[in-house]
Write a structure and sequence with these properties.
Helix content: 55-70%
Structural class: mainly alpha
Order of helices and strands: HHHH
Strand content: under 5%
Low-confidence stretches: none
Largest sheet: none
Distance between the termini: 67 Å
Length: about 90
């Protein structure tokens, strides 16, 4: 098929529904982070320690690029140890 005739990628939802899909994913991400804020003490501690939300997500992105953590708790534990907070706070 010539390049000019290739269909554009639309995530399988068509152009009409793409914006709805992206909004739904954004809302789901917001709800997930809100849930973590209320329910995960380690998440709250790390978020409060780092200067911005952007820094938090950049750190997670970098860690997950190079290390495979067996669980969310293992990732949070690793970050607390590196930041020397929570149970790893220097006294």
């Amino acid at each position: 098929m010539p390049a000019s005739r290739l269909p554009e990628h639309n995530f399988g939802h068509g152009k009409q529904h793409l914006s709805s899909l992206l909004v739904a994913m954004n809302i789901l991400a917001f709800l997930f982070h809100s849930f973590l804020t209320f329910c995960d003490e380690n998440y709250r501690l790390i978020r409060a320690t780092l200067p911005t939300r952007k820094t938090f997500f950049q750190d997670i992105r970098a860690l997950l690029r190079y290390v495979c953590f067996p669980s969310w708790d293992a990732l949070m534990d690793f970050m607390m140890r590196g930041l020397e907070i929570g149970p790893y706070e220097a006294k």
